[in-house]
Amino acid sequence: MNDLVNLAIEAHGGLERWNQYSSLSAHLVQGGALWGLKGKGGLLDDVNVTVALKRQWASHAPFGSADVRSSFEKDRTALERQDGSLIEELKDPHTSFAGHTLETPWSDLQLAFFAGCAMWTYLNVPFVLAQPDVHSKELSPWDETGETWRRLEVIYPETLEVFSKKQMLYFAANGELRRMDYDVEIAGNTPGAHYVSDYTEVSGIRFPTRRKIYPRTPDGTSLAEPLVVSIDLDDITLIK
Q1: All domains of the chain, ordered by start, with CATH?
Q2: Taking the model in full, what pTM does it have?
Q3: Which of 195, 160, 167 shows the shortest CA–CA distance to 181?
């Protein structure tokens, strides 16, 4: 790992402590224009999310109905009853987004895929950067909001489902994450600037609890509106 990855991981609680846990859960409140644009407004506004920390899996519940939950994996997305019985599933879900633009509506299973991919990535950063098949290099610094942020270009492997294989992460001088940039491939490569703030500490691990995602211009600056997605987290619990 390069020194910026080491700094970021230590600033968020350290890899040794992180590796003691297998999953985490949190209460999730979401807003922004995206959900209505995709025809799914209100479906995941106020839910619980659970993500695995040692494999790529995530679940949102309730998913529309109180007794329904989602199950996201790279090669399969499903909706299940709370007892685990299958309602419907989508194999190789990434391919179902072929030809999509930002305005293309989603099915419930596509929503489950997007939301699961998003929250797994968000909650595993920066610790996922320690995986040997995740490559990164530091680029020139970036000035924003009166601060100078260190920039890390990250290349994710084909074995992980992420919004784009190449992403840019921005870190404050103390190693705290401030921003993530990516182009959402499954939504016509829509560019986003994803800001994080309001850190809290849980079992020695530090998490940002507020996230806001805005459009990003070709020169890397973000637009003040529309607010594409907002994410607020509380009641974060780490599970061994």
Answers
A1: 3-239 (2.50.20)
A2: 0.96
A3: 167
